[in-house]
Design goal:
The complex is a heterodimer of chains A (243) and B (217).
Chain A: H1 3-21, H2 23-42, E1 47-51, E2 57-61, H3 62-91, H4 95-101, H5 106-136, H6 145-170, H7 176-187, H8 189-203, H9 213-242
Antiparallel strand pairs in A: 1-2
Helix pairs in contact in A: 1-5, 2-3, 2-5, 3-5, 3-6, 3-8, 5-6, 5-9, 6-7, 6-8, 6-9, 8-9
Chain B: E1 7-16, E2 19-29, E3 34-38, H1 45-52, E4 60-65, E5 68-69, H2 74-77, E6 81-84, H3 96-106, H4 111-120, H5 137-150, E7 155-159, H6 167-182, E8 186-190, H7 194-200, E9 203-208, E10 211-214
Parallel strand pairs in B: 3-8, 3-9, 6-7, 7-8
Antiparallel strand pairs in B: 1-2, 1-4, 4-5, 9-10
Helix pairs in contact in B: 3-4, 3-5, 4-5, 5-6
Classes of the chains: A mainly alpha (243), B alpha/beta (217).
Chain lengths: 243, 217
């Protein structure tokens, strides 16, 4: 089998496992939704105003202003649970060892698991964006839809690659549940910053121009490519050391 | 018997967490043999199986499996070896058929070969669509063995393979192992069920404190 075929086999298997277990729909989506509601409780919804670069005065709610960052924070918290779950499935009955003994290409495992994680993350992000629209009174201007979509895709792949890489590393350690956030959160900080700025541009939050978002998308794309390639190379040695 | 042993370990040392789990093991297993590893808990039986599967690195000494060096050709050894350890390597939320299909497909087994493996272990039919989570321990073990059959391994490394199986399952397992050997495979198994496994094996070797002591049995 080619590397692509094995990656697809692993991705389909992971998605099937998640669909059967319903962990995403019954636990992770409600968790992400609850996080968005908690943010709404914690932050003042008073109006704030300012002046954009063109001298135009803007007014918005605090929640609408910080909504892009909150969406990505909720995504990151959910990512940690998704990654932990993705590797718990491999560890609980020794399947990761079985994959190694079967001689399955580690790069194919990495890409397959990343793809499955990306699909779940993308669906989660769509729900979170809708939640932001409903809960935080965020408007999605028609002109920003393309930028928003490309940002979600680029950030999703970056997060999925990092999550899979460090999930594999943490899989063999005791206390991996607490180790994973320590490993992942510092590494995904560029995604949090870049994706937040790009979504701010897409939504026009605080008067940020649409064109300002595309360079951030470039950063997200470079990040995703770097971890997609580097992760595939490093994943084999990492799981050898970790398990 | 072939001149080139399927397993050829010489003074093999393996270390786990700073502790030498194998302390100079020397063992040769020929093509088509069924070899029983016997020894108390902690003697090194599981470590020996994992070393031969390429899951435990060789720290000192030398070792070849299927004519390939354990110190540098592990990636070539693994796809040709099947290991059934204490855990079954199954996905609990997938059905029996989905598990066997997944593991068979990873090595390019055909649908017919996968179906035949399930039939052989008695996990086809009604059981095929049952999620592994709902199976008994014995049924899980049978499913894991079906995965191993579907993988067409040349060297079978089995750790307590009879555990959890009922009388019929044990007989089936013995039949599967004989059939595997007849079709050119080699089997090394560790077991505490010496009467059952001893009758199955061509040869028994004792493992004592991480070293192999050949037995005439």
């Amino acid at each position: 089998m080619s590397r692509f075929q094995v990656a697809r086999l692993v991705a389909v298997k992971d998605l099937r496992v998640e669909r059967r277990s319903k962990v995403v729909t019954n636990q992770i989506l409600p968790f992400a939704g609850a996080t968005m509601v908690m943010f709404a409780f914690a932050l003042d919804s008073k109006g704030v105003s300012g002046v954009d670069e063109d001298g135009q005065r803007w007014t918005t709610d605090v929640l609408a202003l910080v909504a892009p960052g909150l969406v990505w924070l909720a995504t990151l918290f959910s990512l940690l649970i998704l990654v932990g779950r993705a590797f718990a499935v491999e560890s609980e009955d020794g399947a990761l060892d079985a994959l190694r003994v079967a001689g399955v290409d580690p790069a194919a495992i990495f890409w397959g698991k990343s793809a499955a994680l990306a699909v779940q993350l993308f669906l989660l992000e769509l729900v979170l964006v809708v939640a932001a629209v409903l809960l935080y009174n965020v408007d999605v201007p028609l002109g920003g839809v393309a930028l928003l979509g490309v940002t979600l895709v680029a950030a999703t792949f970056g997060l999925a690659f990092v999550g899979t890489l460090y999930g594999g590393l943490a899989a063999g350690f005791t206390g991996r549940e607490s180790l994973l956030p320590l490993l992942v959160l510092p590494v995904v900080a560029p995604v949090l910053i870049g994706a937040t700025r790009a979504v701010e541009s897409a939504l026009g939050t605080g008067g940020v121009a649409l064109a300002e978002g595309w360079p951030w998308v470039g950063l997200l794309a470079v990040f995703a490519i770097a971890f997609g390639v580097g992760g595939a190379l490093a994943f084999g040695p990492l799981i050898e050391e970790a398990t | 018997m072939s001149e080139q042993p399927v397993i050829d370990l010489r003074e093999a040392v393996a270390v786990l967490g700073g502790f030498p789990v194998l302390a100079g093991a020397t063992l040769a297993v020929q093509l088509g043999e069924i070899v029983l590893l016997r020894g108390p808990n902690g003697a090194g039986k599981t470590s020996l199986l994992r070393l031969c599967a390429g899951l435990l690195p060789l720290a000192r000494g030398s070792g070849q499996v299927l004519g390939l060096d354990l110190d540098g050709e592990i990636e070539l050894i693994r796809p040709r070896v099947g290991l059934l350890g204490h855990r079954n390597g199954l996905y609990a939320d997938l059905t029996v058929a989905e598990n066997v299909r997944f593991w068979g497909t990873t090595v390019g087994a055909s649908a017919d070969e996968i179906d035949a493996a399930m039939d052989r272990l008695g996990v086809s039919g009604r059981l095929a669509d049952v999620p592994v989570r709902r199976l008994s321990a014995g049924q899980k073990r049978r499913t894991a063995l079906a995965c191993l059959v579907a993988r067409r391994a040349e060297l079978w490394l089995l750790d307590e393979p009879h555990a959890g199986l009922d009388a019929a399952g044990r007989d089936e397992l013995d039949g599967v192992l004989h059939q595997a050997v007849a079709s050119g495979a080699t089997v090394m198994l560790a077991s505490h069920e010496l009467e059952r496994a001893g009758a199955l094996a061509h040869r028994t070797v004792d493992i004592v404190n991480g070293t192999v002591v050949e037995d005439a049995a």
